[in-house]
Every structure is written in C-alpha cells, then in structure tokens.
Amino acid sequence: MPVHMVVIGPPGAGKGTQAMMLADILGIAHVSTGELFRKNISDGSELGMQVETILSSGRLVSDELTISLVRDRLQHTSCQRGAVLDGFPRTPEQAEALDDILDKDGNRVDLVPYIRVRDETIIDRLTSRRVDVNTGNIYHVRYNPPPLGVEVEQRADDIPETVQTRIAEYYKNTAPLIEYYTSKGVLQEFDGEQTVEAVSEQLLAAVEEKVA
Ligand code: AP5
User: Fold this and answer.
1) Best of 6, 7, 17, 162 to mutate for ligand 1, by most ligand atoms within 8 A of CB?
2) Which of 2, 62, 148, 199 has the fewest CB atoms found within 10 Å of its own CB?
3) Atom 41 of ligand 1, nearest CA residue
C-alpha cells in the first residue's frame, strides 16, 4: 500500500531536510513544490517564467498552477510507492485538492509531521542556509556546514525582507492546515528546535508506529 506523508511547518522549520531523509529511508518519492518551481526557473520553462517574481517576493503561487503541478508529479512512476510531500499543501484549497487526487487511486494522507519552530529560529536558519547546486542537499553554515569541495549557493528568497513575507504568508494561509489535519487524526507535532538528528529520530519512530 503506498504511503503519503505531508510535512508541514513554517519556512526554515527543516521540512526539506527531514523530508529528504524520510523519502530516502522509506524508498519513496520526495515531492517539494518549492524545488519543482526552482527547477522550472533555472530551466527557463514557461512555468518558471510565470512564477519567478512570485518566488523572489515570498508570496504564494496560485492554487490552480500549484495543484496542477502536483497532480502531474504524483502520476510519475517514481510516486507509485508513495511520496513525502514538502511545501504542499499550503492552503486549505490545496489540502482538499490533495485529498481528491489521492482518493481517486484509493490512497490518503497517512501522516502529517508538523515541525514547530520559533520565528527567531526561522530568520537564522534561512539566512545561513546553503544548497548544493548539483544534488539539492541542504546545509547550514554553522549547524551543518557543506563538505569541502561541494559547490553551494544561497536561495534567492533567503534574504531578510523576503523571509518576513514568507513567515506572514505561512501564518495567513498555511497555519490553518494544522487544524485541518488534526481533525482528521493524522497530525503529529515535533519540536523543530532540537538538532536535525533528534528530530529525525522522533520522526522515524512516529512513521514506524503509524505507517510502516
Ligand atoms: P519552499 O521551497 O517550500 O520554502 P519554505 O516552505 O519557505 O521552506 P524552506 O524550504 O525555506 O524551509 P524548510 O522548512 O524546508 O527548511 P530546510 O530543511 O531547508 O517554497 C519556496 C516558495 O515556493 C514559496 O515561498 C512560494 O512562493 C512557492 N511555493 C512552494 N510551494 C508552494 C505551494 N504549495 N503553493 C504556493 N506557492 C508555493 O532547513 C532550513 C535551514 O535550517 C537549513 O540551512 C538547514 O540545514 C537548517 N536546519 C534544518 N533543521 C535544523 C535543525 N533541527 N537544527 C539546526 N538547523 C536546521
């Protein structure tokens, strides 16, 4: 039976870091809408041109575009065993659309790890984040520095003003999903202020108990 998880939390909570780890260990796909948009931007595709200014402003791409992107992505053979969704859904409309997409194949959202961090932590994490240009691996200049020889870059939206907009968008549009998934009995909260390793360990224990 395919497994579908939705990792939610504010920008910089560690969603990407933990989602990549979970997908790797479970042997399922990692679907990050932020990454899909950034890939389209670097490829210069039509979609990339449509969303570039939206991403660099920190606002959200429209539900219509985002839902259609995820619907296509979930049809890839790489998603046959399931997926860890990271950055999607981000609005109540997207959450309902995801339920419909999964329901058509007899699937559902099995677990929603919610990674909670304070606003002060977000600013520090994002302004010091670096990303491997080749693999997408995520680093932090102090907590998890990139190995020597690895070529990294800073994300265009990791500047303080844009980070503030992203935090505001999160509280306005995405935080309501905590209630949405709590009422469905699938949300589990994690303290994202702990080390990456401590969060990973607790997440894996929850996955084993709920879905493995
Ligand atoms: P997206 O790429 O999804 O960005 P985000 O949600 O703002 O989240 P981030 O990727 O910034 O953070 P993260 O929680 O993954 O943290 P990470 O693991 O990297 O979206 C970007 C944009 O795309 C949006 O603003 C929007 O415009 C658009 N978009 C995307 N999805 C959309 C949607 N569904 N609808 C509409 N628009 C959409 O970690 C951060 C840093 O902290 C790293 O340096 C990491 O090494 C470090 N770190 C992680 N965990 C720890 C820890 N426990 N201790 C210390 N350091 C840690």
Assistant:
1) 17
2) 148
3) 125
